[in-house]
Structures are given as C-alpha cells and as structure tokens.
Amino acid sequence: MSSTSSLVSSTGPGHARILSVGAFRPQRVVTNEEICTFIESTDEWIRQRTGIEERRWADAETTVVDMAQAAATEAIEKAGLTPTEIDAVIVATVSHPYQTPAAAAILTHRLGATPAAAWDVSAGCAGFCHALAQASDLVRGGTARHVLVVGAEKLTDFTDLTDRSTAFLFADGAGAVVVGPSDTPGIGPTVWGSDGGQWETIKNKRSWIEVRAAEAAGEEMVWPALEQEGRQVFRWAVWQMAPVAQKAIDAAGISVDDLSAFIPHQANMRIIDAMVKQLGLPATVPVARDIAQMGNTSAASVPLALHRMLADGQAPSGGLALLIGYGAGLSYASQVVVLP
Amino acid sequence: MAQSEQEILAGVAELVNEETGLPVESVEMDKSFTDDLDIDSLSMTSIVVQAEDKFSVTIPDEDTKNLKTVRDVVTYIQQAQG
C-alpha cells in the first residue's frame, strides 16, 4: 500500500457566493473646505481632479479593528449566521498599526468567532478582491464553510496632511462580506497579478527601520505616511487595468452587457471614468461612485461601494457585478460576482 | 512612417478635443498645455497614452513631465517616429 493512499483531502460544495454585505462609515464628514485648511487648494480643484466632494474620518480612538467589527457584525447578521458559524476571517488592510498580530485575529476574538482561522492580506487597494478570491476557493475546496472577508482602513493615520497630492484623497472606513456555499456559481474566476518593478509608485515614505535610524541620528522624525506618483499610477490604473477587468469578464463567460453593476476600487473619479470608457461599458450599467462621499479608502472601497449600491437600489440583488481592485504592489485582482 | 508636423499637430489637436472638448483650432503650436489650455496632469497623461497609440511611439512618464507646449509634443513625436 502506498503511503499516500490513506490521505484524505477536503472536498467542497463546488460553488461559493457572497451571502451578505456590511459597512462602517465613520460619522465625521470632512469637506473639501476643511481639507483646504491643511493644504493650499480649493473645493473646485479637488472635485475636478478627483471627484471627491467629502470623505469620512474616524476619530482618534477608533481603530481599524473597531471599524472592521462594525462592518463584520452587519454582514454576519444579514447572512443569518452567528459568529460561531464563521470558519475563517480575512482582513485586507494596509493601515492596521501592528505589523503583528493580524487585525483578523483580534477581530475574530471580538466577534466571538474564535477559533476561526484568521489572517490579514496586504495587497494595497486590491486587498479585498484578493481576499475574496481566497474565500471563494476556501469554500469551494471545502477548507471552510463560511468565510468573513473584510476590507478595513484608517488611512488618516498614514496620511501626511501637508502633502498636496494625497491629503484630500485618503479616508477611513470598513466593508465586509460573508462568503458561503452555493448551488450555482456566485464568484467568477479571479484575474490577478502584480508588478513589483513599480513598487515605489505607491508606498510608505519610510520603512520602520529608516524611521528608527533617523530618530537615533537625532533627525526630524518622518512618519511613514503613504505617498504616490499620481501620474504613473493613473496611467497604469486606466490602461493596464481595463484589460484586466475585460479578462475577468471573459473568464466569467459573460459580456459587458450582462453586467448589473461595475464596482471598481474607488481611487479617483477620473480613473473610474477613464476605465468605463476603455471597457466600453454600456451607459445602462450602473457604476459605483462612492468616492464622492467617501474618498479613497484603499482595501475598504470595493465592499463599501458594493454596500452603497445595494442599499440605494442602484444594483439589483442577483445581478452580476464586475469588481476590480488595484494599487500598491503594484497588485491587482478582478472578478465578476453575483450580488447578494 | 514619419508624419509631417502639420499632420501630427492635427492628430494631437483631435486627441485634445476628445479629452477636453476644446475646439481643435485652439490647439496651436505655441500654446502651453497648463497655462493656455488648462489641461491638468491626468488629462495630459490620457492625451499622451492615446498619442502613443495614434502615432506608434513610446512616451514615458519622465518625458511627459517635460512636454509643456503643443510644439514640445509634436516635436517629440516627430523625433520618435524618425
């Protein structure tokens, strides 16, 4: 008898889908006028360049895990589950301020979902779509039955409010979905990838090692806030990512005409508009434009936008939505999903 | 195949018109993209990426920063084609 014949591998239900969505939007609304007290700019300039009218900032005491918890609680309730029925928790974030342990482990404990497996995903603004791909395969493969996927960011902790290229952009929030078994396909194939050769286009200004070295040398502390090369990122995002989104549509075996919603990462309204144009999206397909009210919330933006579209009735339950996340890395992931 | 200055100017003017709605006649050689035509860096990037396709040239971001006037773009494309 061979030594492998006794090994059992997991088998799953074959299909997975998003069962529910939850969101947390911090109470404090920050207008462009308020941003202009930090940087020399105008409401008109910010709107024209980014489409952002206002954004939400969490207060000093609110953490990434707090926001994740609020969004997750809504998603679990809406799925008709109890926390103990969650087998795995994945948090996509770049702003949880502990390098270890993962925000997901703390969140799992807070939710009462212990001993669910818990880990964070660091794929910048593409983190949620990466985590969703993992969740789908975990469920389909039988490793987990219900997976909580959260995108949560407190980007204001890593924003330089004197940086004219990012101060108006970044914001805070969290979105969550529960992924579970399905009789029919609910999450299409994920098209993803990375281009680390361009890693310096979106990054922290300093590594922690450099922060420590500067402090030891008695230099002025430079906080590792996020910075980006806007022009380079814009070019990559529009002309490289629209073909990725098209591949996700093709991989799902559908056409743009079958879509009930397009929910891209909310990076900049100009990127969204240019992407819609590049994709040749019919004017009848609703496009998520949550950025106008929420700013850029990195890994939280796709589930937040998804939540708003469903809540406002812009996208129908059961319809097909094209998701795409892209950002630091440079990393990207896109898939077509059935709306819960 | 290299195109004439006038052909390239007409092509660039079309791209500017598609991106911003500005009339093609307003896109003159000595106009500055930022000061005269009020074109910001993202619109400029859109125009440049589409110009790459239209004229079969490559215009990297580091070069785009130095393209201040319409003439700069036309000359760049002409040299890249040559």
TrEMBL record, chain A:
GO CC field: cytoplasm
Organism annotation: Quadrisphaera granulorum
Family matches, as InterPro entries: ACP_syn_III_C, ACP_syn_III_N, FabH, Thiolase-like
UniProt-listed Gene3D superfamilies: 3.40.47.10
UniProt similarity note: Belongs to the thiolase-like superfamily. FabH family.
Domain of life: Bacteria
GO molecular function, one term: beta-ketoacyl-acyl-carrier-protein synthase III activity
Subcellular location per the Swiss-Prot or TrEMBL entry: Cytoplasm
Catalysed reaction equations from the record: malonyl-[ACP] + acetyl-CoA + H(+) = 3-oxobutanoyl-[ACP] + CO2 + CoA
Identification of the protein by name: Beta-ketoacyl-[acyl-carrier-protein] synthase III
Region (ACP-binding): 266-270
Keyword Lipid metabolism: yes
Signal peptide region: none
Function: Catalyzes the condensation reaction of fatty acid synthesis by the addition to an acyl acceptor of two carbons from malonyl-ACP. Catalyzes the first condensation reaction which initiates fatty acid synthesis and may therefore play a role in governing the total rate of fatty acid production. Possesses both acetoacetyl-ACP synthase and acetyl transacylase activities. Its substrate specificity determines the biosynthesis of branched-chain and/or straight-chain of fatty acids.
Beta-ketoacyl-[acyl-carrier-protein] synthase III C-terminal domain residues: 250-337
Record's keyword annotation contains Cytoplasm: yes
Pathway: Lipid metabolism; fatty acid biosynthesis
Assembly and oligomerization: Homodimer.
Entry annotation: catalytic residues: C125, H265, N296
Coiled coil: none
Enzyme Commission identifier(s): 2.3.1.180
Keywords carried by this UniProt record: Acyltransferase, Cytoplasm, Fatty acid biosynthesis, Fatty acid metabolism, Lipid biosynthesis, Lipid metabolism, Multifunctional enzyme, Transferase
BP GO annotations: fatty acid biosynthetic process; secondary metabolite biosynthetic process
Record-linked Pfam families: ACP_syn_III, ACP_syn_III_C
UniProtKB/TrEMBL annotation, chain B:
Keyword Lipid metabolism belongs to the record: yes
One GO cellular component, as annotated: cytosol
Short name of one Pfam family: PP-binding
Biological-process GO terms, alphabetical: lipid A biosynthetic process
Annotated pathway: Lipid metabolism; fatty acid biosynthesis
InterPro entries associated with the record: ACP, ACP-like_sf, PP-bd_ACP
Keyword list, A-Z: Cytoplasm, Fatty acid biosynthesis, Fatty acid metabolism, Lipid biosynthesis, Lipid metabolism, Phosphopantetheine, Phosphoprotein
Subcellular location: Cytoplasm
GO molecular function, one term: acyl carrier activity
Post-translational modification comment from the UniProt entry: 4'-phosphopantetheine is transferred from CoA to a specific serine of apo-ACP by AcpS. This modification is essential for activity because fatty acids are bound in thioester linkage to the sulfhydryl of the prosthetic group.
Gene3D superfamilies attached to this UniProt entry: ACP-like (1.10.1200.10)
Residue positions, PTM O-(pantetheine 4'-phosphoryl)serine: S41
Domain Carrier: 3-81
Record-stated family: Belongs to the acyl carrier protein (ACP) family.
Function (record text): Carrier of the growing fatty acid chain in fatty acid biosynthesis.
Protein name: Acyl carrier protein
Organism: Quadrisphaera granulorum
